[in-house]
Amino acid sequence: MFRGFFLIVSFVGFAPEAELKQTNICLLPTETGPCKANIGRFGFNPRVNRCEIFTYGGCGGNENNFLTFDACFARCGGDPELRCIEGSKFQMDCNNCTCEEGAAVCTLILCPEVDKCCQPIERGPCPDYIIKYGFDIENGKCVEFIYGGCYGNANNFETIEECISECGEILQS
């Protein structure tokens, strides 16, 4: 009986330690590891309370290593705003997204797909005659154009209202 009681106490004694170890991965420093790959990953930085991009070498390291910002944020929480590696500056405007020089991994991961409203209006190579609407970046407003029926790009809306809703209009004074 005494032996069974001892085993139960020992087993219960280990459970909180395992739980504690699991919850503390967010407090571990991000580690590149010994390999030489240049892989962008996300790790939680408790000093600034947010997930940040770091360069992972491809092997080794520790568990504070997430494939996506969302996975890091879901596990560790913190500031929900995605930012560049601490010390890097992030600039984004129409079809241009970069982090300052030397932060290529940041640029590759943070940059969203090209904004459809920044793409040129494209008819496409097909011969159909379909009235569509696209955002004309030079004039800052949605305009009607003829779509050929294939290819083109995402700057292609069924209605002018849809175009304005998605892209807005730049009011000129």
Automatic annotation (TrEMBL):
<keyword id="KW-1203">Blood coagulation cascade inhibiting toxin</keyword>
<dbReference type="InterPro" id="IPR008037">
    <property type="entry name" value="Pacifastin_dom"/>
</dbReference>
<keyword id="KW-0722">Serine protease inhibitor</keyword>
<keyword id="KW-1199">Hemostasis impairing toxin</keyword>
<dbReference type="InterPro" id="IPR020901">
    <property type="entry name" value="Prtase_inh_Kunz-CS"/>
</dbReference>
<dbReference type="GO" id="GO:0004867">
    <property type="term" value="F:serine-type endopeptidase inhibitor activity"/>
</dbReference>
<feature type="domain" description="BPTI/Kunitz inhibitor">
    <location>
        <begin position="26"/>
        <end position="76"/>
    </location>
</feature>
<feature type="domain" description="Pacifastin">
    <location>
        <begin position="81"/>
        <end position="114"/>
    </location>
</feature>
<keyword id="KW-1015">Disulfide bond</keyword>
<dbReference type="GO" id="GO:0005615">
    <property type="term" value="C:extracellular space"/>
</dbReference>
<feature type="signal peptide">
    <location>
        <begin position="1"/>
        <end position="20"/>
    </location>
</feature>
<dbReference type="InterPro" id="IPR036201">
    <property type="entry name" value="Pacifastin_dom_sf"/>
</dbReference>
<dbReference type="InterPro" id="IPR050098">
    <property type="entry name" value="TFPI/VKTCI-like"/>
</dbReference>
<feature type="domain" description="BPTI/Kunitz inhibitor">
    <location>
        <begin position="117"/>
        <end position="167"/>
    </location>
</feature>
<feature type="disulfide bond">
    <location>
        <begin position="84"/>
        <end position="99"/>
    </location>
</feature>
<keyword id="KW-0646">Protease inhibitor</keyword>
<keyword id="KW-0732">Signal</keyword>
<dbReference type="Pfam" id="PF00014">
    <property type="entry name" value="Kunitz_BPTI"/>
</dbReference>
<keyword id="KW-0964">Secreted</keyword>
<protein>
    <submittedName>
        <fullName>Boophilin-G2</fullName>
    </submittedName>
</protein>
<keyword id="KW-0800">Toxin</keyword>
<dbReference type="InterPro" id="IPR002223">
    <property type="entry name" value="Kunitz_BPTI"/>
</dbReference>
<dbReference type="Pfam" id="PF05375">
    <property type="entry name" value="Pacifastin_I"/>
</dbReference>
<dbReference type="InterPro" id="IPR036880">
    <property type="entry name" value="Kunitz_BPTI_sf"/>
</dbReference>
<comment type="similarity">
    <text>Belongs to the protease inhibitor I19 family.</text>
</comment>
